[in-house]
Amino acid sequence: MTYVQFYHNSTGYIAGSIPPQFSDENIKPIEMCGTDGVFILDGRNNIDTMVFDAEKRMSKMRMIHPDICGYKIIKAQKFSDIGTILFSTIKNEQL
Q: For a FRET experiment, which of 18, 36, 37, 88 has its CA 20 to 30 Å from that of 63?
């Protein structure tokens, strides 16, 4: 199975702060949850077509989720597997 995992920005919560405090420095990309967080791709397509499909889906989703900041295209047996990242717009230092 090949799918897209979408990411959106966190709130910037400062861990352990009571009352809760937020900071722009703590904003980082986190995985979106639920049905909007993933999009199943046709594994028969090449990577260029998969990227095109992911970008198209992301642009449509921005109407209801304007905070989407990127995605990863992953090949795995099931969603709970780590899988292989085929393409990513999220840089490792951002996570």
A: 88
